[in-house]
């Protein structure tokens, strides 16, 4: 028997639970770290949604955003679905946050 993991597609979610719609309706402060990271990632893979991928990445650093910011290309690209483009987006956002902290 071939049992495949059921991928939780964002388009299949209730509209008010989708990250962008949640942000527009409730503001950025209402979003979880996973949802914010998923928005940076943009899309998942055929086997995993962006939200699930973000959850897995954050889980690897035990939810520690400082540790996430230190992963770099090797650390992010080791996750299936995270290539140079998506990793660059995450790393750029982390750097902007770091620079904001210096203001």
UniProtKB/TrEMBL annotation:
Protein name, UniProt field: UPF0758 domain-containing protein
InterPro entries according to UniProt: UPF0758, UPF0758_N
Organism: Pedobacter miscanthi
Matches recorded under Pfam families: UPF0758_N
Domain named UPF0758: residues: 10-87
């Amino acid at each position: 028997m071939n049992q495949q993991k059921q991928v939780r597609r964002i388009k299949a979610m209730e509209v008010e639970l989708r990250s962008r719609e949640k942000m527009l309706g409730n503001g950025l402060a209402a979003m979880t770290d996973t949802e914010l990271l998923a928005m940076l990632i943009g899309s998942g893979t055929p086997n995993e949604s962006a939200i699930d991928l973000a959850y897995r990445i954050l889980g690897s650093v035990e939810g520690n955003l400082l540790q996430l910011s230190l992963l770099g290309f090797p650390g992010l690209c080791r996750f299936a679905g995270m290539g140079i483009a998506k990793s660059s987006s995450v790393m750029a956002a982390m750097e902007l946050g770091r620079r904001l902290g210096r203001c």
